[in-house]
Design a protein that fits this description.
149 residues; single chain; mainly alpha; 4 helices
Length: 149
Amino acid sequence: MDGMIAQTIQLALAPVFVLVAIGNIIGTLTQRLGRVVDRSRSLQTLHGETEGPEHDVVVREIRSLDHRIALIGSALLRLVLAGLAIGVTVVLLFVAEFAHVGLNTVAAGTFIVAIGLLMWALLIFLKETREAARALRIPEEYLEKERKL
């Protein structure tokens, strides 16, 4: 019996390592979300104080930040669901072992779902970082590319 417990714990380690990775990515995304929200709040203050082209720049950035907030929220949702699926996987592995029920196929399915959700979240995260990089591009007029330096 003790050997079976040790074997089940070893089998559950891979999903637990994935869970740790998911937790780290969640931490990174929440930090990004905090910075984006802070920036959006400062721009909302500027919104009422600007006019003309300057106002247009503020509105464009607010729209970009709003889209980034939505992307980060979407990625976080998928990561949380992936974490829950990993938890279900580990529980199924132990229930299968102790109740002598054939749940390994179901556990494999929940693990596959978790990895799929993780990959989906990472793709959304990639999209958000690309949007952030695009928004941070320096306007052409500041680069003065026509000048030889």
